[in-house]
Amino acid sequence: MLTFHNILDMASIGLGFTIFIIAWFNTTQSNNNKFKVAGVAILFATLLDLIHLMSNTQMLKSDAIFNTFSLFVLARLIWSCALLYAVYLPAKLNGCKNTSLFYTLLIIMGILVINIAFSSDTWPHFLSSGSNNSLITILLTAVVPDIAALYILRRHYANYITANRLQIALLFDILTDVGYSINTMAPFDLEFSIHIFKLLASFYMLQAVFRLVVKYPYEQLVNLKERLEDLVARNALLYKESEKQRNLVENALAKIGAIISSQLDLRDTLGSIADMVADMMNSSQSVIALITNDQTQLQVVATYGINTPPSLLPLQQSLGGQVIEKNKALYLNDLSAQPNVFRPQLIFSNIRSIIAAPLINDGQIIGVIEVYSSETAAYDQHNALFLTALGHHAGAAIASAMLYEETKLRLEEEKFLSEIAQAAVSSIDTDTIIEQSTAHTLKALNGDIGIGLLSGDTRDFFRITAVINFACKLDDVALNDYPQLAVLVNGLKPVTASAEVFKPITQSCDKIDIRHLMVLPLAVDQRLLGFILIGWQRSITPERLKRISFAKIMAQQIALGLEKAHLYNQVKSMALSDGLTGLANRRNFDMFLKTELRRAASLKRPLSLIMLDLDKFKNYNDTYGHLVGDKLLAQIGQILHNNVRNIDLPARYGGEEFSIILPECSSAEATVVAEKLRLTIEQSHFPDNVGTFTAKITASLGIATYDPALTLCPPDTEKIISVADKSLYQAKQQGRNRVINASILE
């Protein structure tokens, strides 16, 4: 017989089948087997409810399968477990504590069911009396997982998407189980309310499952669709922006490429980049600053749109300093909130926004670009990214220009060193050497005035020998009158200082206002021979300070030239010449050779020594007599003097042996000179004992060459003479009248 209660049961069963179908088929798509397990449990409980319903409606005989009440209790127990699993499943409990609680409840519930079924006498009397008391107790036991599920849900997952519906379902499920238990023992009928509770529990469980496996994924898909549409729109906007940025970058790269290909001058390159950066960033001012060698300052090397540009950017207070520290582009859009940040002072406007990026070459930061705007919020992250890319390419362009500038500077230095060396060796007059060297040094260091001084009769007295571009009259200098200058000069190395150390150059008779000096002491072996003063009207830049090492090399070469001239003059004053031949004597030879060896090692230039010995001169003396032999030696001396350069030194070494020192003469060049001398002697006629020139004689020559390109350590005088003597001995052994050459290789 179909009753209203049966209709409610059928509705609950229908909801159970619906829950299973939704859980099974929808979770198949999401590949989640745990949902299937919960769905099967609900299906099993629903089937038991169906069998219970069929038994009550006489469609099945109750004793044919199971007791109908037992089927109902088992269905309620399975349904409660399914609800507990439904709470555990979507919440994906984390941690050992919650997982252990879930499995502990299942084990306890199983133990209770087994105990009630087989040992009901251990329970209180009111629970164990009657035929269905054990089943009622099991029914009450089914409330335990519902309460546990409700506790877990409210305690840990109150904000879960299905939490409210699951809580309501659990409450109605608890009311259903408790109601059945009370209805069995109570004198009044609660069956209608129980069926309503059961139907509502199934309904809210269906809502929770539908929300979780159907509606929520659908909402997610809709949300994803909306986000994708928004992403597509933003991507389109980004694409347009990227196209704009790409065109901007291509334009910038084209300009940088044009700068690199068309300009090698560093100053022009820096100016063009400063102009280009301001133009590309739609700004009116920009600054390029490079890190100094000591890494303590940012030297401003180029500006655009700034009337009075700063010479330095402070590392601590400037945005450029922060960029170097963080190695990324930064920008400030409201400088009113950053009063301590350094910014250039403008005449007609105020700087309100700054953006800066590092200049990078080969992964190293070489400087920064700062760009300024008179508007607030003038820059954004796109500008920062663009300026960063620009900084990489601009850094490469600047590094290329700096390399070219450095190469050009080194070539110029080589040229000036060559000119100074030539001036130092081409004259034996110290005044001429200091005049020419002062002019070359002034030009090499790009100075405004130059003054050359030579040491006088006393140690502290210096004679002014050369004055360039300075109209005021200068008196000779006594260092005692200028103590600050004396300290610098006696330091024996180039140094920069204020012009105040030498008051005479600050005189008002000249329109040139000299502010800074470089002092170049000229010394050899700690002996001060003089000094040169180079003056500038402008401040001394870090680039000029870098050239102190170059100035030191120039001073060394000038000093060596002065030393050579001094030695030559000393030789002249001491009459260090051979009275018979007019050539230098042995003492002169030894001093000159020592000086030239030192000079060759310093300049990295070759030096050759020729040792010449007359063949069978004893026979000549025995045949014609010693007086005629002396005439022959005098004639040989004249031949040597006429066939060597002015800078060479021919000398009588002893007896019939001669030597020629050849500065800056390679082995091949010395061989040519020696062959010329040998051939000239062989072809010459010499006096005989009857007053005519019919006698003949030959010479053997040995050469020793010191070449710094082949020899690491310069030889001493004994070594080079020994090598030349060995070459001469070989020439004698091989038949005389020949030239043997040897280079010093150790």
Describe this structure in words.
The protein is α+β, with helices and mostly antiparallel strands and about 750 residues long. The chain folds into four domains: about 5-215, Up-down Bundle (Rhopdopsin 7-helix transmembrane proteins); about 265-410, Beta-Lactamase (2-Layer Sandwich), CATH 3.30.450.40; about 425-565, GAF domain (Beta-Lactamase), CATH 3.30.450.40; about 575-745, Reverse transcriptase/Diguanylate cyclase domain (Alpha-Beta Plaits, 2-Layer Sandwich). The protein is built from 21 helices and 17 strands. The chain has a six-stranded antiparallel β-sheet, with helices on both faces. The chain has a six-stranded antiparallel β-sheet with strand order 9-8-7-12-11-10, with helices on both faces. Strands 14-15-13-16-17 form a five-stranded mixed β-sheet, with helices on both faces. A hairpin with a 2-residue loop joins strand 5 and strand 6. Helix 4 runs antiparallel to helix 7 (about 145-155) and helix 8 (about 165-185) runs antiparallel to helix 9. The model is unreliable at about 60-65, about 90-100, about 115-120 and about 120-130 (pLDDT under 50).
